[in-house]
Amino acid sequence: MIRLWGPIIRPMVDAIHGRNILEIGAEYGRSTHVLLNYVRDVGGHLHCIDPAPVFDVEDFKRANADVMTFYQDLSLEVLPGITGIDVALVDGDHNWYTVYNELKAIEASHGHDPLKQPLLFCHDIGWPYGRRDLYYNPANIPAQYRHAYALKGILPRKEELVEGAGMNLDMYNAEQFGGERNGVLTGVEDYLAQSALEYRFLNLPLFYGLGILITEQRLAGNAELQSQVQRLEHALQGEELIALAEHMRLVEGLVLQGLSRQLQESQQQVEALQAELAALRQVD
């Protein structure tokens, strides 16, 4: 989601003068670095939740204790105690049960007050997990809300999972596509349907899909935020969104090329070391 920070998320955060940010799902910490730089600049605080981050949490804590609180736990366990959030980035466990209840918990912890609700940015409401659950740990999801799943891949325009190919074939993907209580977008839609709050919902179909939720009361009192929403609504109708999607594709391509070069260099280094080791064994 952090790839969308500059062109989409940051202008909206600036429009509300957001200071306190909630990040659900840190993974490698790349997005966390960007958000930490932001909260330092504005004198805010970052609340970061991830039960299994792929980085040294203690290093993060030591370096950023003044501007960050890290919760190495499941989001649904800690969200009820987190208040005073201006912006929430929801990008954790990509399944109906988690997302639906995360949004409910955030609303409740902010008193069901439409003017206190944070701006909500929900990632992965497009393919592949908009209408299909992913379980990082199936045991965390109550059985009655968990679909049958398999360690198989996902292909575009194909409802059935595939063996040995496709996206995320090493993850626990729901075997069923679509239907009730299945997928991130379904979780967002079901939350909106049950909430007593009135939201403006923007569905941006790029970079795996980004959903933006803003209460109408908060939107009505902020002309700058209204301007940002109008800009995005206009983009959804014309070439601007296509241009942005193409920009994201190019950035992703550059990142993948960089990773490919790093992998190739690492392989060359391994081969050189193996050759040196073989030469030393011959000497012995």
Describe this structure in words.
This protein has a seven-stranded mixed β-sheet, sandwiched between helices. The chain has a three-stranded antiparallel β-sheet with strand order 6-8-7, with no helix packed on it. The mean pLDDT is 92. The longest helix is centred in the C-terminal third of the chain and has 45 residues, at 239-283. The chain has nine helices and ten strands. Helix 1 (5-15) packs antiparallel against helix 8 (223-235) and helix 5 (96-109) runs parallel beside helix 6. By secondary structure, it is an alpha/beta fold. It is globular.
Number of strands: 10
Mean pLDDT: 92
Low-confidence stretches: none
Strand order of the largest sheet: 3-2-1-4-5-10-9
Cα-atom Rg, whole angstroms?
21 Å
Number of helices: 9
* SS-based class: alpha/beta
The amount of helix comes to 40-55%
Shape: globular
Distance between the ends:
54 Å
Strand content of the residues, in percent?
A: 15-25%
Assembly classification: single chain
Summarize the structure.
The protein has helices at 5-15, 30-42, 57-64, 75-78, 96-109, 184-194, 216-220, 223-235, 239-283; strands spanning 20-24, 45-49, 68-71, 87-90, 119-123, 134-135, 149-151, 172-174, 199-204, 210-215. With 284 residues, the protein is of the alpha/beta class.
Key terms for this structure?
284 residues, alpha/beta, seven-stranded mixed beta sheet, three-stranded antiparallel beta sheet, 44% helix, globular
